[in-house]
Amino acid sequence: MDTDWCECVNVQQYLRLMKTKASFSHSCMNAWLSINTIGGLIYFGGNNALALMHLVGNGNNTSRLFPVSVLFPLEAEQSPIYELLVIILFLHAMLVTYTVVFLNALISTLVLHVSGQIDIICQDLQNISENIPYYGSSGQTVGMLIERHNKVITFSKNMDKLFSFMALMQVGWNTLVICFLGLLVVISVHNDTGVVLLRGGFAYCNIMMDVFIFCFAGEYLSHKSRSLGNAGYECSWYKMSPSHSRNILFFIMRSQKQLTITVGGMTNLSLETFTSVSLQIFFLIYNYVVLCIFPN
Fold first, then answer.
1. Distance between CA 124 and CA 248 in Å, rounded?
2. How far, in Å, CA of 98 to CA of 33, rounded?
3. Rounded to an integer, what distance in angstroms lies between the CA atom of residue 162 and that of residue 9?
4. Per-residue model confidence as pLDDT tens digits over 48-87
5. Do 267 and 213 touch, CB atoms closer than 8 A?
6. Across the strands, what pairs with 268?
7. Is the pTM of the predicted complex or chain greater than 0.90?
């Protein structure tokens, strides 16, 4: 990435394009950070905030709840042990939340960086078709374009190696968490506890947003890789010399293989995958709720 930015500094048009991608990535990071912070505060601090409100209102609230359900092998409800454990558990939970946010921001930043490089290649193809005559000296320009394309492919493969296992763990772990959230929803419905239902709803939205970010990043990367082949086909490759047009045709053929992010090497991350996973999770929770409410 550092090399790509250094190469873009000398060309104002490329630098403006990469700055736009970086600015959009920064905005997405701030949005996800705000949403997950609100969701984390509601989910992990809702019980304590409600207990504090009861204490202020009634003055005799004896329930001492923790941010998460946990069992200690000691008397943990005595001060100052209780306050210390509440702070530690809350900070740990928010740290995990922010770790997921930064992971989502990282994959988004890398995908946007690749998309910026792809846009630069498309602009180079357009410039070649507009400025290079039939027997002009376009060899160096075409060679630089192919070299940049090879770097994009290598970068995408390394990104897939980095996030493939992470995406698999993300989908598997989030599915398990959503099942337990469904159990909390069933308990809240039976006990008429709206706070638990609200916490579960926010947690579910945050989890599905995390899965959506991964799937949308994979879909966006595939879409941008398809645009490479379209840009190569739309350029005036037939007006170039035979050797240069042959290189462009090889470029078009190589662009037919889409750049993707996989889930453990089993399936590609895409909006179709997100829809499939969402429906499976929905029917799983629905069947579980029905079995809990109507066991017979």
1. 12
2. 7
3. 28
4. 666 665 555 555 555 667 767 777 777 767 777 777 888 8
5. no
6. 262
7. no
Spatial separation of the C-alpha atoms in residues 19 and 280, rounded to whole Å: 39
71 — phi, psi (to 5°)?
Answer: -120, 120
Residue given tokens 């558990």 in the structure block: 89
CA distance 143 to 243: 12
Mapping DSSP onto H, E and C, the string for 87-122 reads HHHHHHHHHHHHHHHHHHHHHHHHHHHHHHHHHHHH
Cα–Cα distance, 287 to 186 (Å, whole number): 12
Structure tokens at 5: 């930015």
Q: Would you call 63 helix, strand, or coil by DSSP?
A: coil
Please report, in angstroms and rounded to a whole number, the separation of the first and last CA atoms in the chain.
59
3-state secondary structure of 268: strand
- Those residues whose C-beta lies under 8 Å from the C-beta of residue 236, and which sit 6 or more positions away, are 128, 129, 130
Long-range contacts of the stretch 16-25 (C-beta < 8 A, 24+)? 17/116, 17/119, 17/120, 17/123, 18/113, 18/116, 20/116, 21/112, 21/113, 21/115, 21/116, 22/109, 22/112, 24/112, 25/105, 25/108, 25/109, 25/112
Handedness of CA 111, 112, 113, 115 (dihedral sign): positive
d(CA 174, CA 211): 8
**pLDDT band for position 276 (50/70/90)?**
confident
* Exposed / middle / buried, residue 251 (Cβ in 10 Å: 0-12, 13-18, 19+): buried
Hey, where are the domains in the chain?
1-57+72-293
